[in-house]
Amino acid sequence: MIIRATQKLLKNIKGGVKKADEVPAESFVSEWYADVISATFKGKMVVVYLHAPTYMVVIAEGKTIQSTYPKFLKRLEQLMVRFQFPEQFIEEHVRHSGAPQITKTGSRSILGVFNQIKSHIDYSFAASFSYEEIDFEYIENVLMDRINTLHNSWLRPMDVWDAYFKGEDLYKEKSGQQKDDLVIKLKPNSGLTKEEDLYMENEIMKMEIEQRLGGSFATLDNEDINPELENLFLKHIKAFEERRSDASKTTPHALIKNVKFPESDTLTEYMLGKQYRRLVDKLEKVNIVVNFLGEYSVKTQYDFIRNELLPLEIDHFDMPGMIHGFIYEEFHPNHELDLENLSKRLLTFIIEREMSADSLADFTADHVDYNGEIMTLTEFMEQIKLLEYTNHFVETTHFRIEKIEFDEEFFHGKVAGYLKEHLKSRVYFTFNFIRNESFWGLVSVDLKV
Q1: Which stretches of 86-192 are DSSP H helices?
Q2: 2-175 — its CATH code?
Q3: Nearest to 430 by CA among 410, 404, 395
Q4: Which residues contact 95 (CB under 8 A, 6 or more apart)?
Q5: N or C of the chain: less Cβ packing under 10 Å?
Q6: What radius of gyration do the chain's Cα atoms show?
Q7: Which residues pair with 370 in a beta bridge?
Q8: Bridge partners, 415 (sequence order)
């Protein structure tokens, strides 16, 4: 292995450092950058190893290359096994790796990316309550899925490795070197150009996904879609569906190893805040994120996660980078918040006069009552556009919602307020909604000066 160490690491190396011209030419597999950083807890240091061609990251506990290199090799092997690298590749390039050849860093652009990645790691360390809680494996997995700028493309480490094993070694293609004999070619030469081959691969994946899931991919007006990004997107969908079909059942509590959390009523306000942060951090480490769209007390959020979410049965399948997202309001609807958000969107459309039938479909059915007259969505949009030529809407810039009412028994909601104008009289609005199943639908709009 070629280790390009920062000055902080070089100071602690005994026996001298090989100069750059004494180190063999870099290969795709063996070139690494290394730096030592604090783990934020007293006396705890780690050496971060960055694979230069792909930006894959391995974290080893310690503060020198001599003390961390054996750990680095072991953790690198474990990382490659987790991401299903070929066994022959691991055996040749990791298990039989000799002593490292240490030299100085050689690329400012790589150091720039390295600094960004170290900031990400620092943030992960700071979010832990103790050194023992730091999950190095989780951080390494997340960084394998991190999108970086590489050779003027947006790529993840796992994508670059995937290309390498398919015989599309991006690093060596850029440098003009020949590919390693070990490279595994997963598809034969089709005789097409790289762009044509990528297009055909995307089309085949689309057909496979449509056959599995039903439906069809939408055709966009702007067909200028980056084929590499499209390929990445389609591979995500395909991998997700394949793994979901084999999913097992579990609970969030089981995923965080059934760690116990005290009842909120037994905690002081200060300790409740600490336990809430600890609970959220534990879930984030297993890729579970809880969102609260409205504003709620820490106790409400803590009780929801502890009492309702932790024991909830969910599908579980291992897919690096996948996030399980939960929204509090899907369990406990917040009608006032829903009505407020719908009204704000509608008011924005009215002010900007840029509504379409598709955008209005989110609010209502085929018809709407506008100032006492039933009309189609198209007619309603035309009426709103006409307001641009009246004195009342020339200077309209923003609005104020004064009242939100809803009746859960009769599924009726009402929002009232006014549009603010510059040197003009106010325009008052009233929106009426009816709740249908789990959605609020707009039924009438009143606008008055």
Answers
A1: 87-90, 108-126, 136-144, 157-165, 170-175
A2: 3.30.420
A3: 404
A4: 73, 77
A5: C
A6: 29
A7: 373, 445
A8: 404, 431
How far apart, in whole angstroms, are the C-alpha atoms of residue 261 and residue 142?
26
pLDDT at 77: 94
pTM summary value: 0.53
CB 266 within 8 A of CB 304: no
**Whole-number Å distance between alpha carbons of 149 and 327:** 32
207 neighbors 215 (Cβ within 8 angstroms): no
Identify the bridge partners of residue 376 per DSSP, sorted by sequence position: 367
Residue with tokens 């991998």: 239
Structural tokens at position 315? 């599908």
Beta carbons within 10 angstroms of residue 354's beta carbon: 12
- Token readout for 318 is 């291992």
Contact 183, 169 (CB under 8 A): yes
**Contact call for residues 41 and 50 (beta carbons, < 8 A):** no
Q: Is the pLDDT of residue 362 over 50?
A: yes
Whole-number Å distance between alpha carbons of 405 and 390: 30
pLDDT in tens, 106-144: 888 888 889 889 988 987 887 777 888 888 998 998 899
Average pLDDT for 69-74: 94
Q: What CA–CA distances, in Å, run from 346 to 139, 329, 341?
A: 42, 21, 9
SS3 of 74, please?
Answer: helix
Its sign, for the CA torsion 165, 168, 170, 171, is positive
User: Taking the domain 335-448, which CATH number applies?
Assistant: 3.10.450.50
**CB 72 within 8 Å of CB 100:** no
What residue type is assigned to position 221 of the chain? Answer: D
Eight-class DSSP state of 304: I
Instruction: Measure the CA–CA gap between 382 and 350, rounded to whole angstroms.
Output: 11
Segments of 335-379 assigned E as strands? 364-370, 373-376
Cα torsion angle, 351, 352, 354, 358, sign? negative
- ∠ Cα 17 18 19 (to 5°): 115
- pLDDT value, residue 35: 94
**Location of structure tokens 């009769």:** 410
pLDDT tens across 179-235, in order? 343 333 334 444 556 777 777 788 888 887 777 766 667 665 555 677 888 888 888
Q: Which of 145, 152, 147 lies closest to 109, judged by CA?
A: 152
| Token pair belonging to 191 | 């005789």
Q: How many angstroms from the chain centroid is the CA of residue 117?
A: 16
Residue (of 431, 105, 130) closest to 259 by Cα position:
130
Q: Where are the domains of the chain?
A: 2-175, 194-244, 248-329, 335-448
